Amino acid sequence: MHRQHVASDALFERIKHSIAGGESSYARLAEGPGFCMARGEGSHIFDVDGNEYIDWCIGYGPLIMGHRHPRVIAAVVEQLEKRGSMYTFPHELDAEVGEKMVRAVPGLELVRFAMSGTEATLAAMRLARAYTGKQKILKFEGHYHGWADEHFVSYHPDDETGGDEAEPKVLLTAGCPQAIADTLVIASWHRPEYVEAAIRKHKHELAAVLCEPQMCNCGIVPVEPEWLHWLRRITAENDILLIFDEVMTGFRLALGGAQGYYGVTPDISCFSKALGAGFPVAAFGGSREVMALEAANEVVHGGTYTAMPMNLAASNVVLGEMIEHEETFYPRLHEVGNRVVRGLQRAADENGVRAKVLGLGPLWQIIFLRDGAPDDPIIDNSRTMLAVVDTERFGIFQSEMLDRGIYFHPGAFERWFASSAHTDDDIETTIVAAHEAMAVVAKAAPVPAV
Asked: Among the four 75, 122, 171, 268, which has the fewest Cβ within 10 Å?
């Protein structure tokens, strides 16, 4: 049953001769390429060996309407053929996309466009520092905001077995200067007593608290809505801005993103992925008061490729679809996700495999429990997640699913995404494959408790 990847292996070897490591992103290379792509269509992808897969990674999230959505492609082609790829001048799509974003997201009155989520979060941090006159940012252990020095810090704890016993540390990636540590305060997610102590201690130097409102980069860690409301209150009480990194959740959980879904309005928000429907666009924004510094050009943000009309043409289509069909678009996304989640959990339970499927609607991940871990562990931050996950069994499951034509990211701490292109047949095929794959996992040798 094992699928052949002869052409993929050969192409990857060729790529490595000119591209460092064979990939231009650490995230894609970390778990190995698996195969090389030929094309995508709707909810399916095809590799260079001719293998077809149902795609639950969907470009790491941007392809919320699937691969090569005809209206998105048509809008981009029309822009290229009739008006051009870029201007570096204001244009009609600035207004159209900006107006749609402001209409859709509760916390937005003014926005600025960027090219990637990393750029948007960096711009938000700079803006917060400029607005408050304070220098430090509180970020949470296990939250991911991009690969740049300023926030690629303490992405994972240093101790993957210690639960909550160990204090979060400032952990720098290779090549990141130690001076970055002086600009950050690292805290534990879902731990109000420790976060409050950190805020009280650093109140006079904290410009902002930066977080993923729904933690999506250590698997999917369920969020308590009360926790988000508490973060909003304590930051406001201490003259600290609250920044939501909605690169994953924006326009995916709901039209208004996580802030609309949970009813919590931050001071600054960051968006990418679903906003571009597969094209490189990002944005950050907030109230008129906070964004006035951007409007007056008192804080520097820019770039040759920001607000490229080619990319905004794609954004205009996807936002228009979401706004016009909000009453059906999001219920369908949640239905797709919920049906897969239930099916995966049944597949595990009926095969006697200790696994939990965690998620919210269009975002989820399946985790396999280490031997010795509780049957129903409390998972509410990166430490409690890392302490119980069996990555070896996850790897077996992912490999077996791939052989059955189901693709999701091979990293145990990544996530699955639903798109509007996924069909009922995709769901049922995935669930049938999961039952078969779980039967293989059930026969795997026990993994020693750590």
From this structure: 171
Q: Is the pLDDT higher at 84 or at 158? A: 84
Where are the extended beta strands (E) located within 233-293? 241-245, 268-271, 282-286
Q: How many domains does the chain have?
A: 2
Identify the CA nearest to 70 among candidates 249, 278, 254, 273: 278
Are 62 and 116 within one domain? Answer: no
**CATH number for 237:** 3.40.640.10
Active site residue 100: no
Q: Is residue 447 a part of any domain in this protein?
A: no
Q: Are residues 343 and 432 in the same domain?
A: yes
Residue 301 has pLDDT above 80, yes or no: yes
Tens of pLDDT, residues 153-205:
888 776 554 455 557 878 888 888 999 889 999 999 999 999 999 999 999 99
The position carrying tokens 């406001």 is 236
* The pLDDT value given to residue 1: 60
pLDDT at 333 over 50: yes
What is the pLDDT at residue 22? 85
Helix (H, G, I), strand (E, B) or coil at 166: coil
Active site residue 305: no
Which residue among the candidates 245, 267, 380, 426 is catalytic per the annotation?
245
12 and 77 both lie in a single domain: no
Helix (H, G, I), strand (E, B) or coil at 378: coil
| 309 three-state secondary structure | helix
Q: Is 60 a catalytic residue?
A: no
350: left (phi over 0), alpha (psi -120 to 50) or beta: alpha
Spot the catalytic one: 144, 261, 262, 407. 144
Q: Give percent of the chain with pLDDT exceeding 70.
A: 95
Question: 45-49, 50-54, 69-73, 150-154: which has the minimum mean pLDDT?
Answer: 150-154
* CA 403, 405, 406, 407 torsion-angle sign: positive
Catalytic residue among 47, 273, 356, 426: 273
| HEC sequence for 121-144 | HHHHHHHHHHHHCCCEEEEECCCC
- Give the count of beta carbons closer than 10 Å to the beta carbon of residue 162: 13
CA 153 to chain centre: 17
Nearest Cα to Cα of residue 293 among 267, 312, 311, 271: 267
- Amino acid identity of 324? E
Structural domain that includes position 200: 70-324
- Token digits of residue 87: 């201007």
Tokens of 343: 């099916």
